[in-house]
Amino acid sequence: MNLATLATDSCHLNSGCGFPAPHADIFFLTPYTLDIFGQHLVFSKTILLALIVALIVITFFLTAFRSPKLVPGKLQSLGEQGYLFIRDQIAREVIGKEGDKFVPFLASLFFFIWIANLMGVIPGAQFPVMSSLAFPVALTLMVYGTYVFLGMKHQGPIKFFTNAAFPPGVPKAMYILLTPLELLGLLVTRPVTQAIRLFANMFAGHLLITTFTIGAYYLLSPSIVGALGSATSFGVTVALTGFEMFIQGLQAFIFTLLTAVYIGGSLHAEH
Amino acid sequence: MSTLAAVTGSLGSIGYGLAAIGPGIGIGIIFGQGVQAIARQPEAYGVIRQNMILGFALAEALALIGFVVPFVFGA
User: DSSP E strands: which ranges in chain A?
Assistant: First the structure.
């Protein structure tokens, strides 16, 4: 049974209806078509939310830094806090002083991912944009392109790969084992895990919240077990929502941190 | 070829359980050692926490892949 019928039918405990566990199909939202200016546009809630998120982030930073003052106002203060957080906690901590020129990129990444994730708990939106694999993949490809380009620029087009494939200070015989692993790690494992980590966290979190929300609705029935179970399930939903907000921030932070680590690794060869 | 033994049911759940063992141990070690390191050297909190989160992210990815794969490749 899918969720649309669950909302209309009264599927509760003891009504001869099994628990309608949510499945991966809750992530495939109904696409809408829009005919405008002779264009046939197809969009869903996911892409709409992504556009709104981009708009929010752009508008916020534009208004915060439109006319920067020496003594910042409220909005500029907030924008500076966010920017300085990325600079001090990520860029300078991981890359060092020369990380300063990557702060705009890292800050844009962090805030876009964070707000996109937050859409998972904001009432009305309630769909984490990053739980659609395409978004993390697109962001990861951007990061991948950036650090491969930077590595080729700073270490030389061939040197970048040989530096990574032959880490110094290792017995010669170990290269048989190490070189394929290092190259695989640089070219395949890094981008794949970076994208999957963000996607899977948001996917799992959304599925978990959905499961307990449906549980609260399903168990709602005139019996002791139903009432207690429903109340417990609802309580868990609220607690999980709080936990999910923590995870969303953490995942945005981790994605940005890994980006900084990879960029830092490209700027200087290991030694 | 005749089938000698077969398993049916929610294999994805079992797979996730198995996939979570390693990362569970790993994350436990990471945070345990991280807290110990902070207790020994509180002034290095920033660097330790950042590396702790990095290690946590790398270990956690395995468990999450185990969680998602049944949904993606499952029947």
Answer: 32-36, 39-43
